[in-house]
Amino acid sequence: MNAVEQTEQGIRLRILLQPKASKDAIIGLHDEELKIAITAPPVDGAANAYLMKYLGKAFKVPKSAIQLEKGALNRHKQVFIPAPKAIPEVVRQLLENL
């Protein structure tokens, strides 16, 4: 699977998460994953909760609609974003290059 996969229902992302970064950003492709940096620390699920909130804002969907499919306790994650109303430029470019 690629880092970004578009389906009829939404977008699936394979993510390499960098917690405790200096700023929040979708950095780009790293091997076969989309690297995302967030400022939240990796303790007690704080990074996962923050990631869902960040992706919700970036894709303009409720954070409760985003599904963490794999990697709850890992930096390597897979998330599904149903019916995004916006697509960040980095992700749009990856989709166009498929």
Automatic annotation (TrEMBL):
Domain of life: Bacteria
InterPro entries, sorted: DUF167, YggU-like_sf
Pfam families to which the protein is assigned, alphabetical: DUF167 (PF02594)
PANTHER family recorded: UPF0235 PROTEIN C15ORF40
NCBIfam families, per database record: DUF167 family protein, PRK05090.1
Family: Belongs to the UPF0235 family.
Name by which UniProt lists this protein: UPF0235 protein P7M32_00425
Organism: Exercitatus varius
